[in-house]
Amino acid sequence: MLTKRIIACLDVKDGRVVKGVQFRNHVDMGGILELSQRYADESVDELVFYDITASSDGRVVDKSWVNQIARRINIPFCVAGGIRTIADAKAILNDGADKISVNSPALERPDFISELAATFGTQCVVAGIDSRREGDKLQVYQYTGDETKTIKSKRDTVSWAREVTRLGAGEIVLNCMNNDGVRQGYDIDQLAAVRAAVTVPVIASGGAGDYVHFADLFRQSDIDGALAASVFHSGKIPIPKLKAYLKSESIEVRV
Amino acid sequence: MIAIIDSGGANIASVQFALERLGAESILTKDVKIIQSADKVLLPGVGAAPIAMQNLAEYGLIDCIRDLTQPVMGICLGMQLLFAASPEGNTPLLGIFDADCKTFSPAQGRSVPHMGWNRLSKQQDHPLLAGVGEGAHVYFVHSYFAPITAQTIAATNYGDDFTAIVAGNNFMGCQFHPEKSGLVGAQILRNFLEMPS
Lengths: 255, 197
Description:
heterodimer, B: alpha/beta, Rossmann fold, two-stranded antiparallel ribbon
């Protein structure tokens, strides 16, 4: 049986791993290679590296660390942040990343997703979606890496999720912004709504604060994986303990 | 020397890095002579079957690969290329293994692509599986699959049972990515490297 994936997200800023609360107040969490190696040794299933400054600064992620990570660790990883051209994506994939994730550039120009999928295959292309609950609506936000540049897009989350998969995204990472960094649990209703709308894997992001939040997510939805950052980086939830707990709750994981 | 066939897809570097971690030298190449004289040959592949076959044809590698006598291992799409045909663009493949690849159809609780860590179930003893425990997890990313055949040495289930590892004569293939499958993947690559050439 396919296991539920536990994914550590490393937000990268100026070559260091950082984490903020609701995308703000970034705190230094450590070096990229050291943290990546630690997670691989602890049997995390996958890593995601987001250069959170890239999209809003118009910069491309510094590629030297992509190559260093690919040389060192033996688990899959995805790179996100300001990937705007086929050449940007190609350089990162050729350096050893397994997937690239696009967010703001896809909102600017949706056809970019179909171009990426046609060039590299859908399995390489992840659509990152930053979604905020506003009353009874789910709203996609853009340029969330920098709060001074963050804007509300014209997109509704569920229809944007459908559109990115129609265009060729092979996976969706749904960041539920209201929940991000506040450690009160995942927004399971929102995640389930997106899960029901598409056939590709959907990864939950935003809200993990305790062991039970992961079990609730996997028991109450068909979500394929859970992504978290601060609870892993801080050591509050060690990955081996999380997996042992999930296994004891009869949730299929790789231990 | 290990030859890694450059079939034009991205992400071939990962395979080379995995061999480096195991202390093996490799060369990324599409040169027929280098491939023919290599001790072992790896055929990785990410992307679409029609494009990969078109590239192999353009580089004059189709007969070259079919005629190899040293150990050859396909990875992911590279494994599927060893089979007879793919539904992806109705593409004829190398035809070393006599079965056609199929497509996963999405269902409740089954997202497509099949992406993530799933279990190997041993079907036959084989040197490639030395030191690999029953039910070991490896990392998959694919939307097409090869069915179970007489040459299947390990199977995996994702709604359908499919070939996770195939082996016949000097040709082998892994549907998953051993280069990204942690210690289990490293063991399988080490087993391949230790085979007599």
